[in-house]
Design brief:
Blueprint (H helix, E strand, L loop, with lengths): L19 H10 L2 H16 L8 E4 L28 H13 L4 E4 L11
Parallel strand pairs: 1-2
Bound molecules: iron/sulfur cluster.
């Protein structure tokens, strides 16, 4: 059985599911490198050296953001010269083009602004 101790460290038998408590311990106390290693072990046990990818699109409707998080280099004031907001027609065009290119996964992430009208 795979175990995570109180520090979040995992034992070496990776194919069994971990419990919610073990997952929480790993999230809180575990090392990112250990989590990455575990994910890689599981991937290799299921798929050997093969890796699979999804063609995805990140649609960022706007970079105008009222939150102005310190860690973020993406946000702009609405009057900044490089601020943008994608219209619905533009979004449709982007999505149709993505579909034609075989994109099968869509992420929509962007700035937070009342100007989007999505409250
Ligand atoms: S775009 Fe996201 S991360 Fe950046 S300032 Fe806005 S809420 Fe924060």
């Amino acid at each position: 059985m795979t175990r995570a101790d109180k520090s979040g460290r995992l034992s070496a038998r990776p194919l069994e599911r971990i419990s919610h408590e073990q997952a929480l311990a790993l999230l809180i106390n575990g090392e990112t490198a250990e989590l990455m290693e575990r994910a890689d072990q599981i991937r290799r046990q299921f798929h050997g050296r093969n890796a699979y990818f999804v063609h995805s699109l990140n649609l960022n409707p706007t970079n105008i953001c009222e939150n102005r998080c310190d860690l973020c280099a993406f946000w702009r004031e609405d009057n900044d010269s490089d601020a943008y907001m994608v219209t619905l027609d533009q979004a449709r065009q982007i999505l149709h083009r993505a579909k034609d290119l075989g994109i099968t996964e869509l992420h929509i992430v962007g700035g937070v602004t009342a100007k989007l009208g999505m409250e």
